[in-house]
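Notes from the 1:1 (GR / supervisor)

We went over the backlog. Supervisor wanted to see one worked example end to end before approving the batch request, so GR pasted a single chain during the call. The sequence is below; no edits were made to it. Supervisor asked that the structure be written out right there so they could see what the output format looks like.
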Amino acid sequence: MPFAPPPEDPKEEELRILEAWDREDLMGRIRSRERKYVFLEGPPSANGPPHMGHARTRIVKDSVLRYWIMRGYAIFPWIGGWDCHGLPIEVEVERELGVRNKREVLERFGIEEFNRRSREAVFRYKRLWEEFTRRIGFWLDLDNAYITMENYYIESVWWALKEIWKKGLLEKHYKVVPYCPRCGTPLSSHEVAQGYEEVEDPSLVIRLRELGSENHFLVWTTTPWTLPSNVLLAVHPDLDYLLVEKDGFRYYIAEARAGEVLGGEFRVLKRLKGRDLVGKKYEPPFPYLRP
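Structure output shown during the call:
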C-alpha cells in the first residue's frame, strides 16, 4: 500500500484536522457509548509553561485512550485537572514578593494576602497549557477540569481518607524524608529535584558497637541524616574483612579500606568474609530515638 504524500503545509493540515474534530463533536459522540474505560488524569501544575517532557507523557496517555476508543469504549470521566498545591507555587510567589522565609510572609503580607497571590499564580500559564494540549491532539475535557485547591476537591480527599481510616486501612508509621528548614516542611522527591544541584558532600565513618561484645563495626555512609532510623548494615558476602585493634578499640572493617581509613599501625586479630558477619547485631546509633 503506497504512503499518502505529505501535506504541503503540515501546520495547516493539523489545524484543519483539529477543527474537523471539534465540528463533528467526536468526543461528545464517543462519550455516549455504553462500555466505559476509566481514566483519571494526573494533573499538571499550570504555574509554569509546558515543555517537551509534558508533551511526551500526554502523547503516551492519549495513545492508550485512543486504543480503547477504537475498541468501542467511552473514556470516563475523561476530564482534565489542575494541580494547585505544592511548594513550587509558594516559592515562586515568595521570590516575587522578595521575602526570605515564612516569618517575613506573616509580618509583611499575612496569610490571606499570600494565599490570594498564590491562587493567582496557579493559573498564570493555564491558557498556554490548554492550547498546548489541543495542539498535540490530546483529547481531554478541559472545560470541566477538576481543581485541587477548590473546597469540593479538598473535602473529597478528606472524605476518602476518613473512609479509609474507618475501614482500619490507615496506620501511623515513620519515614525518613528530605526536610527544608527554610520552608518548614518535608519535601517530595519531585520538589527536591526542582532545586537539584551537584555538590561535593563529605562522607562519614561511624562506629557502631556489636551487641554483647567489645567489637565495633566501622560503617561508611554518604547519608548521615538517615542514621536516626538506621536498622541495617550492608556487607558484601564475598569481600575480605578484618577484625583489627587500634587505640584500644576493636573494629570490623573491609580489608581493602583498612589502611586508608584507620591510618598508621593496627593489629589484625582475625580475617573473615562478609558472609561471616551476616546475622550479627549492633547497638543503634541513637537508641533514645527508638519509636
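Supervisor's comment: The chain has two domains: 10-173, 204-289.
Batch request approved.
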